[in-house]
Amino acid sequence: MKRSAIIDATMVLVASRGWHALTLVDIAQEAGVSYGQVCRLFATKSAILAGFGRQIDEAVVDEVDIDLEEPARDRLFDVLMDRFELLRPYRDAIAAITHDLRRDVSSVPSLWHAASASMETVLKAAAINPPALARGVQIQGLVALYSRVLRVFLTDDSEDLSATMKALDKEMADAERWALGINDVCDALADPQKIFDGFKRAATSA
């Protein structure tokens, strides 16, 4: 309960005060817990932000209801949109955080790591298991895709998030074309004989 209270307090405060001006003392007062309790559970504000991401990930897994008969693309689209819906109450806070951190290079590694973990959860929730050789590349590609759509989401005031859906659909179409090439390469690497056969065909036709 204290973890959730601290995370919720952080998101409430950051929406009005911004990220850089916010302190752990402020968060403790808003959450109704001691400063020591905040420090024991979250050593830094970045740790709280990572905790928020995990909280959303858990909600995605708990609430998503996919149809395994649907194509993988549709399942992924639905899970990503479910995640955006869960983020809707925190949109002002997320906008403040992204604004304040956009020039903070030191925060990039931790944010990217947290986003990678979230996108891995999204793939699992959508019942998608990429080939082992392509998994890491596809997760990183999904992080980049999600980040671009997030910028649209933050200014999407439509009731049904139509602009976000349109942006996601376009980004996924672009990513599909790119992923096909990656899968071909990974398939070849997984079966070296295919590479040798390709060399033989090229030599024969030369």
Q: What's the layout of helices and strands?
A:
Layout: H1 2-17, H2 24-31, H3 35-41, H4 45-63, H5 72-87, H6 91-101, H7 108-125, H8 132-153, H9 162-190, H10 192-205
Helix pairs in contact: 1-2, 1-4, 1-6, 2-3, 4-5, 4-7, 7-8, 8-9
Label this structure with key terms.
single chain; 206 residues; mainly alpha
Description:
By secondary structure, this protein is an all-alpha fold. The chain has 10 helices and no strands. It has helices at 2-17, 24-31, 35-41, 45-63, 72-87, 91-101, 108-125, 132-153, 162-190, 192-205. The radius of gyration is 21 Å and the shape is globular. The termini are far apart.
Distance between the termini: 69 Å
* Gyration radius over CA: 21 Å
Which band does the percent of strand residues land in? under 5%
Largest sheet: none
Run of helices and strands: HHHHHHHHHH
Q: Would you report the number of β strands?
A: 0
Whole-number mean pLDDT: 85
In short:
By secondary structure, this protein is an all-alpha fold.
